Every structure is written in C-alpha cells, then in structure tokens.
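ok so dumb question maybe but i'm new to this and my supervisor (M.) told me to 'just get the structure for Ribosomal protein S18 acetylase RimI' and walked off. so i did the thing. is this what she meant?? sequence i used:
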Amino acid sequence: MIRLAIETDLAAIMGIVKEVIEEMGERGSVQWSSNYPSCEDFLRDIKKSELYVCEQAEGITGMCTFSHTGHEEYGEIPFTTTNALTIKRLAVSPSHRNKGISHQFMAAILQLAEETNKAAINGDTFKNNPHAQKFFLKHEFQWIAERPDDDRDVPLYYFERLLK
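this is what came out, is it supposed to look like this??
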C-alpha cells in the first residue's frame, strides 16, 4: 500500500537508503552517497506531505517523493511545461525488487497528478544509473536533456512524461 510517510517511518527509510547506497556503489553509480539523501531531506519531504512509502506486511519496502517543485536547475531544462510533479528519491529495498512496487509508486503519482491537474511528471537521474533510466523509459517518459552535475563528474539525464 502506498501512503504518505510519517516521521516514525524514517528509521526504515534510512535503512533502505543504506542498502541502496551499497548496491549503487557496487554498480559504479555515485548518485547516492553517505551525504545524500539525508534524513533531513526525507524529514523536509514529510513536513511538506510529499514523501510516500510502500508499506507491506514486512514493513516499509520503498519510498518516493512526489514534489510540486523541481530541482533548482529545472528552469534551465527544456521541459514542455512547468505544471508538473517531480519524482525524487525513488528507492525500493533490494530484497523487495521485481514485485511491482515501483509501478505502484508510478500509479500513485499519476493519480496525484490527475487530482492536482498537472500536465506532466518529470525527473532526473545520473547518466551512470541505467536502472533509473529504465524505470523512466518503461513508464512512458521521454528523455529531454543532459546536463553536467556541478558537484560530480557524471552528467544528469532529465525525463518528462506528458499527461495532457
């Protein structure tokens, strides 16, 4: 079940973050690290009612932020519209992959986009994160642009899914 996250979910969320950082490191991706995402990032998302979790009988198995604002650089990206929700910090525990959890998050953000009259959903990922790129393409997003990351040597890819 996808639901809004609450502060008591933070320990489970940070446990998943730790698992995902380790897995990304094994794949050579530096998108997440010991500095990002932080507990403070998720707490800020909770306070804005933008962080969602997947809760199953085993507990929290994934999380995703459905943000009403893009990242700072989104004004420089040639998205079709600014009337969009942004997917941020999507992760599923490695032990719960391939069970449709990311699809549940996608269904939930599509529903929220419809309820809030958004014209698109957008997101970004590092060039060396093929798993995230596959997620976007599988869910009918179009690649929009590539931009250097100011903090790292790996460029970012930007994706958009038009809804209207």
